[in-house]
Amino acid sequence: MPEIGADPYVSARLEMVEKQLRSRGIRDERVLRAMARVPRHEFVPGESAATAYEDHPIGIAEGQTISQPFMVASMVEAAEIEPADVVLEVGAGSGYQAAVLAELAAEVFTIERFPALAASAQKLLAHLGYANIVVATGDGSEGLRQHAPYSAIVVAAASPSIPQTLVEQLRENGRLVIPVGGAEQQELQVVRRLPDGPRIERKYKCKFVPLVGKYGFSRS
Ligand code: SAM
User: Fold this and answer.
1) What lines the ligand 1 site, CB under 6 Å?
2) 11, 23, 48, 67: which is the annotated catalytic residue?
3) What ranges do the domains of the chain cover?
4) What is the pLDDT of residue 219?
5) Domain 10-206 has what CATH class?
6) Can 23 be counted among the known catalytic residues?
7) For residue 196, how far is its CA from the centre of ligand 1 (angstroms)?
8) Residue 145 and residue 110: Cα distance in Å, rounded?
9) Is the pTM of this model over 0.90?
């Protein structure tokens, strides 16, 4: 886990936690602590470091984005991560959300369709000392069956529907957090795998880049 003692962005990050997260209803203290620890400025292009803690998504390579801090905190909170959990993230992007998840879980697998993003996320996460994250390249709309079952799956891209294969890769009582809808707007949904079938909770409107793959959209 990163040592943040000499970090010039500590106060910006703490202000982000208070003004963008706690004041908007993020209540889980473990999530707030994780967001206060992960050096978000390391995950954005160098020219965006000064704006890394502002209240918006930021462009990264391959035309993709690192999500708005509130969105990351809200999805991670909805995933109800416990310390022993094994978690899958679909859409590694910069690796930022994987780092937040790794602060809370025992092990995090994250999968990214762009090899260049996967490679740079892997390099950065290793540099920051995250030993409990594995970065894979491939179509995460199919999940990552070889490491299933997962306590939680967090999909950081918009899906036209809930991929059944992701539900199947949850353990019992596992949570799938996923934006579902059209390319322009989605609804954040939490699917819980219960013994008598999945239970879906609909949360709020959101906007993500598309999940492109076999069980997502056919192209970006
Ligand atoms: N979690 C990322 C972060 O913290 O930087 C941000 C994710 S970005 C909003 C969505 C990511 O999902 C993009 O990097 C995109 O390439 C990726 N993606 C889209 N479809 C995918 C798929 N089928 N499998 C894996 N990754 C996918």
Assistant:
1) 64-67, 90-94, 96-97, 111-114, 117, 139-141, 156-157, 208-209, 211-213, 216
2) 67
3) 10-206
4) 72
5) alpha beta
6) no
7) 31
8) 12
9) yes
